[in-house]
Structures are given as structure tokens and as C-alpha cells.
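Q: How do we represent a protein-ligand complex in a form that can be generated cell by cell?
A: Start from the inputs.
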Amino acid sequence: MNTVLVLGGAGYVGSHVCKALAARGDTPVVFDNLSSGHAHAVKWGPLVRGDIRSSSDLDCAFAKYRPDGVMHFAANIEVGEGEKEPLRFWENNVGGVITLLGAMARAGVKPLVFSSTCAVYGEPNLVPITETETCKPVSVYGRTKRAVEILLTDLARIGEIRYAALRYFNAAGASPNGEIGEEHDPETHLIPNALKAAASVGGKMKLFGTDYDTRDGTCIRDYVHVMDLADAHLAALDKLMAGEREIIANLGTGHGASVLEVLQAVERVTGLKTPYDVRPRRDGDAAVLTADLEHARRVLDFKPKMSDIDSIIVDAWRFHKKTWGISR
Ligand code: UDP
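Then emit the C-alpha cells for the protein with uridine-5'-diphosphate bound:
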């Protein structure tokens, strides 16, 4: 049984990982400044309100809870915001990790599971994307995540830490019992936005681009259920605890759905059509981003179990209906 300090554990992926940790008997200690996370999503262990950029906040948490390992989710993730405020992203996403690594060194804790992203690849040369693809991130967000990966490699080389960088494709869905789910503000992601428009909570959805070189002209993404992602974090932590020094793995499903296919799945699941307006392409959107899963299968025994698109939408819909007060 491990005690795990979960930075950003009040957020979307972090809270689902906490649930999975607790389900197998580990203790997640959430450290979060609640700038975008939610106290009501912290249900499986203590919540420390603190800032990842504060050495003293971190030192206090390490001294009080003596964690065996660390997981990091405490980052700014909204790609458009990063383009407008790069310094804020670099301070939090990179500066925050540097401060965290100092605290880990002082506390003598080595295992770190870091949430990275397929945005580190930018426009890939080949899809599905393998981990050997060149990293050429095209957003501030992707560059901050890539910078941390490089830093972690340097520290792992001299034995300062043992780390896993998990490159998520499109995290989606919610806890199947509806108790936690995706609650971003502003919400920019496709599935919650499609459900919102379908449920007439807000206006029409904006569909960004129908002129891509794909089967129906809309972008193709690899949607992976957040509970499958959570399982991969547990597997990565176990490997690090057992002495593995470095894991870099894509987490997706290996196949993609187009924006229009997601809207068809929304209609199958909810019985509702998503009203939408076609808009121009969104800056920085690649046509197709899907994961090659071979490496994650090998190193983490990763097998998505809940990630077919209809199951993802069933779980997302159950959660959103509750939060939007929809009874049907
Ligand atoms: N998308 C869209 N309308 C929205 C949100 C997203 O058309 O309101 C499209 C977006 O352009 C991309 C896909 O849906 O092609 C997935 O976008 P999302 O923001 O969910 O994830 P990303 O792949 O950008 O991380």
C-alpha cells in the first residue's frame, strides 16, 4: 500500500487516478490550489491546499504525509490560453515542476508519474504515432510539456528520480457511477461541448473545419476513457516503485473517431442531435492524431477496456446530465 502525493488531484484526470489508487488500497493525498480543480472531486484522501510553485507548501506536504511516490497533473492545459499567456504556462507547467523536483530531492522521494500529452509531437510525420516520432510541438502548452520531459530525462540519467511520462491522446468519459467527470471552465473539448449543445445547455456547437484530408473532412482523434488512463498510471507507478528508471508511453486506443463520428455516437447514446455551425479550422489542429499502442502494451500492459466511443459517451453523458440537472 502506497501513499501517493497527487499534484493537481482535484482536476479531471487526477481525480480519476485518485479513485483508482484508493480502489486498490493506496492513499492518494491531493495537493491542489483549486485554481481549476474542484474540492468536491477530492473524495479518497486528504486535500492539501497549496501551490506547486511554493517550496514551503510542498515541503510541508512531503513532511506531513511522507509519500512513497508522486503524480503530477497540476498544469495549465488550455491550448489557446497558452498562446496568449506563455509566461504563465511556463511558470506553472515548467517552473512548478522544477520546484516540485527540489522538494522531492529534499524528501528523498524518487518515483514520479508525469502527465504529458500527444501535443509534444505537433504535426507528426506518421500516424499512428510511435514514441520515436520527432517531437516538434506547435503550441506553448506542448512545448512546456516537452520541456519537462527533457528535464526528467536529465535527472533520471543521474539517478535523481525515476519517472514515467504518459503522453495522453484525448482523455474523455467519466467515472461510470457518475460521481466525478470532466468540469473545465471554459470547456473547449469536443465531447462535453457536443453533449452540451445536444442537451440545449448553451447554444450550437462550433465545428472547427470540414476540409481536412480525412474520411469525412473533419479531424480524427484518439479518444481514451479516463478510467483506462487511470489504470495506466497505476501500472506506471508500480513499475517505478519496482525500480524502473524511465518510461515514456503513448496512451490512446490505437484508432480514431472523426468529429462527425463523435456527433453520430452522441446521437446513438442520447437520442439527441448536436446542432452545430461549421467554423474555420482551429489554429494548431492536426488532421489525424492516433496512438501506436505497441510500446504502452509492452511496458505497461496497457489494454483499454472502456474506450470504445459509445461507452465513453455513455459515461460522460451520465455525469453531465447530473451536473446540468437533466433528468431524462
Ligand atoms: N472540436 C470542435 N468543436 C469544439 C471542440 C473541439 O470541432 O467545440 C474539434 C477540434 O477542432 C478537434 C477535435 O474536435 O478537431 C478534438 O478537439 P478537443 O479540443 O476535444 O481535443 P484536442 O485534440 O484539441 O486536444
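The mean pLDDT is 97. Residues 170, 188-190, 193, 205-208, 219, 221, 259, 282, 285 surround uridine-5'-diphosphate (CB under 6 Å).
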